[in-house]
Amino acid sequence: MAEERSQTGSSSSHAPPSSVVLDGIPGSPGLAIGPAVVVDTRRPGVPHRHIVRSAADEEMGRYDEAVRVAIQGIREVADKARERATRAETSIIEAYALMIEDETLRSMVERHVRIDRQGAEWALDNAITTMVEQLRSARDPYLAERSHDIEFVGDRLLRALMVRQLPLSVVPLMVDAAILVAHDLSPAETAGLSRDRVQAIVTEVGTRTSHTAILARALEIPAVVGVRRITTLVGSGEVLVVDGSRGQVIISPSPGMVEVARSRAQRRERVSLGLRGTRDIPAATRCGTRVDLLANIELPQEAGVAIEQGAQGIGLYRTEFLYIARNEPPSEEEQYEIYRAVLERVAPLPVTLRTFDIGGDKFMSAFQAPAEMNPALGLRAVRLGLAQPELFLTQLRAMVRASVHGNLSIMVPMISSVREFRAVRELLELAKKEVDAAGYPRAAEIPLGMMVEVPAAAILARQFALDAAFFSIGTNDLVQYSLAVDRTNQELAHLASPYHPAILRLIELVIEAGRELHRPVSVCGAMASDPFAAALLIGMGIRSLSMESSSVPTLKAAIGRIGCHEAHTAAERAKDCVTAREVEAMVRTTFQAELREIVASDEE
Ligand code: PEP
Ligand code: MG
């Protein structure tokens, strides 16, 4: 439990600082120990200046100059990021440039300047506050996310207006490597960071799927997000331990804590080093049964990292991340180039592109209907695709065109009825015809499979298997929908166990259907990267797991210690358990000896 600190910045006190352990959300894996640099990314103090009417033109001139300076600044960030960022990320930055130049914003500012006779800074502050309030009052997570973008734009403009008082960039040029601590970082700020200078990132807001976390993972910078009040609890220069894999931050760690963190990092390093030599050797159990380990990715450049970590392909590419923070969906051409790059990087290994899963806890999209009472049960994923066939077809055509560049499968999220799956298949056939008519080459066969993440899909797995080429079990949503536990609610996290006997029963139904109709079955939810749960899944008959790239080496090591017979016995014994706790305890006891060393670094 997080301990409260009575005063800020104990580095200024003569008393030895007491250690504070804070829990957040794992944003990007890895461990860092170093000094904090706390940056204030919120808007600076704004001078409230009344102006004489005749000064209005001059004030608007200052505003227009600030727009020019801010655009120049943001283009510099874009140029820096362009070298390694994808087109999707640079287009986020480009979108900021457009927002800075926005005419609506300018006319709001002008009204405050000319009618209310406010100085440009004050007028801008009022205009931004109004826009942010409007977006937040919609109570739509997507619009709430956009309100951060508006704040960011306002921040750049204010800093450009007050350029004499304040440096233009909110992220200081860090000479020595340090840990960046902020309330929040925009995608543009994060994309401009470099691993040599930024040892880790800690933010007060954010979730695993927030921009900061996604980009930090892509840049391989450890990150913990959602650490409440961290900017008020830590002072620049104080030493932090940031454990991005656990989602934990220690302020002013004791020498013992630093030692534990170091040895944990070394242990992790040893595990991955130990596997470096076996990178190209597939994972297998102690008795030689092969288990395919694939990677889940959110950004295209993660594909290379996945292969370097020894993944045998991409089991899940969450393509919805291409649709974030933009006004227009990505074009067919843009998507084609991105999918092509991923397929070429991973070939000849397989890549499963999941069609967009927009909605629910993902990014409520501009393409979506007004805010829903229960977004997780609403117009999400395949439902949105079928409701907007042109949007869906654009994505399918891009995927079909990319198929010629590697080993591609397509997977559909949130399928709940056979009819829905067939409708997608028809759209895919249409996409193929359109691609053929346009004269583009494509693979003759593109397997179309489905995620099993709605209980109905698991219960009817045998019927689905007649149509679907493969199944991938999304345990994150399967747990959410089967146990009626909101996956974003931290208070209920203890109820969201994939060890729940009902979940195991649903998984079993899918495995049985796959076996009977010769359809491959894999697991791509978070359950796959828990070594104990993976042992149970292997015992149940699963031979393919897809997870975050960073977990692949650990899972490869874990699987190498698991015996098939023991795993099978554990799976049989699980059938007699009636609670998730019973199952988990039994599995942990069964594999404790084999997996102790593997998990020790995370459990000590
Ligand atoms: C899942 O639901 O388990 C899954 C892998 O999909 P996502 O986490 O993207 O919803
Ligand atoms: Mg899901």
Task: Write a concise keyword list for the protein shown above.
single chain; about 600 residues; Enzyme I, Chain A, domain 2; 22 helices; about 15% strand; disordered N terminus; binds magnesium ion
**Nearest-integer average pLDDT:** 86
The low-confidence parts are: 1-16, 164-170
CATH architecture of the domain at 12-41 and 170-256: 3-Layer(bba) Sandwich
Tell me the span between the first and last alpha carbons: 16 Å
**Widest sheet, order of strands:** 1-8-7-3-4-5-6-2
Kindly identify the CATH topology of the domain at 12-41 and 170-256: Glucose Oxidase, domain 1
List the ions, cofactors and other small molecules found in this model. Answer: phosphoenolpyruvate, magnesium ion
Radius of gyration: 25 Å
Query: Class by helix and strand content?
Result: alpha/beta
Largest sheet: 8 strands, mixed
Q: How many extended strands?
A: 16
Write down the overall geometry: globular
Number of helices: 22
What's the CATH first level of the domain at 12-41 and 170-256?
Alpha Beta
What does this structure look like?
Mean pLDDT is 86; it is low at 1-16 and 164-170. The protein is globular, with a radius of gyration of 25 Å. It has 22 helices and 16 strands. Helix 1 (56-82) runs antiparallel to helix 2 (87-100). Among the domains are: 12-41 and 170-256, Phosphohistidine domain (Glucose Oxidase, domain 1, 3-Layer(bba) Sandwich); 53-161, PtsI, HPr-binding domain (Enzyme I, Chain A, domain 2). The protein is an alpha/beta fold. The site of phosphoenolpyruvate has 10 residues, from strand 10 and helix 17.
